[in-house]
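I am going through a labmate's work and have reached the protein record below. What it holds is a sequence and that sequence's fold in C-alpha cell form. Please read both lines and tell me whether the C-alpha cells look consistent with the sequence. Do not assume that whoever made the record got everything right. Thanks in advance; the entry in question is below.
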Amino acid sequence: MFQLNILKWMQESATESTELLIEQLLDIGAALSDTYDLGDLLHLILSKSREITCSDAGSVYLVEKKGNQPTRLLFKVAQNDSLPDFSFHELAVNMTPKSLAGYVALTGESLNLSDAYNLPLSLPYKFDKSFDKNTGYRTCSVLVLPMQNRSQEIIGVLQLINRKINSNVVLTANNFQELIQPYSQWEERIVSSLASQAAISIERNHLQENIENLFEGFVKASVQAIEARDQCTSGHSERVAKLTVSLCQEVNTITSGPLWGVSFNEQQIKEVRYAALLHDFGKIGVPEAILTKRKKLYEEQLELIEQRFSVAQRTLEMEYAQTKYKQLLGHLSDISQQHT
C-alpha cells in the first residue's frame, strides 16, 4: 500500500522535489523494516515524520488494550527541537475524545489545526495548554494522525507540532508567528501514508516480542522441568547461563590478545544465554531411576560386581596353580631322564 501511494504521487506531480521526497520515503520504509527495537522504531517514526514536514516537535502515542477494548494511550516518545533539554517521562493518559490524541484514537479521523489555541467551542476536543504553560513553549499548528494497520485497527497516534518555514530555525515566544505555518493537505497525505507504514512496523515488532516471550516461557518451563527431576542440581542452569553471559560481556571488553577481534552483539548474547539454560535438556529423556540415584551403583549392583571380581580372582588363581603344577611335573621329568 505504501509503495502504491508513492506511485500515485509520482504520476500526479513528477517534479524534482517530488522525486527527492519519494527517495526519502523509500529510505524511511527500508529503515522501518530493519529496526526491531520498539523504542528505536518509535523515535525513527517521529524523527522522519518531523524531518519531512519541518516540524519543530512531535509525539507518539500507542493504544493500550484490555482484552480487545482500547483503554488508555501510552505517551511513548516526544521530541522538541526548541526545547532540546526537556526531560521526557513516559506516561499513560485516559483515552477520551476531549483530547486531540484521544479523539483521533477513538474516531480514526485526522486533525489538521492551524492554531491549537483558537478552536471553535462546538468541537468535542480541545488542546491541553499545560505543557506550554510549564515550559514557555507556544503550540500553534498541529497535525494529529491515526496509525492504522492493514486491518484498519488503530494501534497508535502520531502528533506533529509547529510546521516551520525552515527546519533550522529555533522557535521562541517572540518569533513563532513569523516562523510557523499550517500543515498542507499534501503533507497530511504523505504523513498519513507514513503513519500506516509505521503502524505495520510496530505491529511486526509486537509480534516479534510475543514470539520471543513465548520462547522465553518455553525455556523457563524446560529449566523448571529439568530441575524438578533432579533436585540436586537446582539453580545450576541459571548459574551456568549467568556465568556464560558474563564471559561474553568480558570478551567484548578485550582490546588485545587472541580474542581482541571477537565480539558478541545483544542478540548473540541472548542466544548464548538460551543455549546455556538448555545445556542439560537431555536430562528430560533420562530415566528417573538413573538420574536421581545417590551413588554410581545401587548396593545390590555393587555386590554383583564384587562377586564377579571374586569369581575372576579365583579363576586366575586356579589357572596360575595349574600352570605351576605343570611346570613342576616337567622339571621332575627332566631330572629323572638325566639319572637314567
Remarks:
- Strands lie at 55-66, 69-80, 91-94, 111-113, 142-148, 154-164, 180-181.
- The chain has a mean pLDDT of 84.
